[in-house]
Amino acid sequence: MENDEISLRELLDKAKEWYQYLLSQWKVIVLAGLVGASIGLAYSLTTKSVYTASLSFALEDDKSAGGGLGSALGLASSLGLDLGGGSGGGAFSGSNLNELFKSRTIVEKTLMQPVVSGNDTISLAEMYLRINGSRESWSDNPKMKSIQFPPLTKRKYFSRVHDSIMGEIHDDLLKNRFKIAQKDKKVAVTTIEVLSEDETFAKAFTEALVQEVSDFYVDTKSKKARMNMAILIKQRDSIRAELNGAITGVAVANDNTFMLNPAMNVNKTPTARRQIDVQANTAILTELVKQSELAKVTLRKETPLIQVIDRPILPLPKDKFGKAKGILLGGILGGFFTIFVLVFRAVFKKIQLD
């Protein structure tokens, strides 16, 4: 019976044979390594540095009011008033807030924020198009060349072409230039990073994005408290006007009954009615003043909701594909690829001969 097993000596002989073959092709391998090193060097020279803007923030925990404030909120609830002291805004907590950073609406508003570039004040979207080389590629297209993104432009003024460009910018930012993560689940600190070839854009976009999210988050979570406060202030002012009118009415009624027959009790009726109005409006006004002040306290309690810890500071850290790295990696890859091709070619020839 034939033995298909290979001995150690035969294995060493095969390895020696391949070694001799590759050694005989050393000129080709070295030449390929030099070509690969040249390509790596050219790549390192043409590749731009990538700047990273990093910003960390903490989200304020949504805690229920305690102590005297909690008792006051309970009293307000018993009177049918909701002062927003509950768990409003929970829809934007935790991972949901991270998704808010990625929403197209927030990113578009951020891109419309102004930024100083040289002697001009342009939008972040316009700066992105210049950095990305889109403006140069549109120089021969009159239709695309006329597309502009002035700072603080409202979305209702966007055309279909504007929407398409904004969509591409949004997708590129999320896929290639934007990272958001919570490094430790035990620590409620979130870090966002924006990568760009221009450090001014990276820094400005990061800060503007956090500001847009913070404003939207604060407005959304405190919306109920602000509405209740506005209603209470309006009712307070209305009751105050009614009280002033009732006080004036008491004085007028007293003037009308002056020097009249005291036995005529019916003449005292207007005065009594006005006094009851004064007492009732005084009690209502007192309660409304308490509730309106409580609403102001509640509103202050809920803002700010996002506390920035570390902001990006110039100069930003940059990642550069160095020349030495390009030469080394290019040479190694070129050499290994050539060895693979030579081995494959030799094996293929041997199979054909067999």
Description:
The chain is α+β, with helices and mostly antiparallel strands and 354 residues long. The protein has three domains: 13-47 and 325-353, no CATH class; 50-221 and 309-319; 226-301. The chain contains 13 helices and seven strands. It has helices at residues 8-24, 26-46, 67-78, 95-102, 104-111, 124-132, 134-137, 142-145, 160-177, 199-221, 223-257, 269-301, 323-353, and strands spanning 50-59, 114-117, 120-123, 178-181, 189-196, 306-310, 318-319. Strands 1, 4, 5, 6 and 7 form a five-stranded antiparallel sheet that branches. A two-stranded antiparallel ribbon has the order 2-3. β4 (178-181) and β5 (189-196) form a beta hairpin. The chain starts with 7 loop residues before the first helix and ends with a helix. The model is unreliable at 63-69 and 84-89 (pLDDT under 50).
Pick out its properties.
elongated; 354 residues; 10% strand; 5-stranded antiparallel sheet; alpha+beta; 3 domains; 13 helices; single chain; two-stranded antiparallel sheet
- Identify the overall geometry: elongated
Which spans of ≥5 residues are poorly predicted at pLDDT below 50? 63-69, 84-89
- What is the number of domains? 3
Radius of gyration: 38 Å
Protein name: Lipopolysaccharide biosynthesis protein
InterPro entries: Bact_polysacc_biosynth/exp
Organism: Flavobacterium ammonificans
Keywords: Membrane, Transmembrane, Transmembrane helix
Task: Offer a concise description of the structure.
The chain folds into three domains: 13-47 and 325-353, no CATH class; 50-221 and 309-319; 226-301.
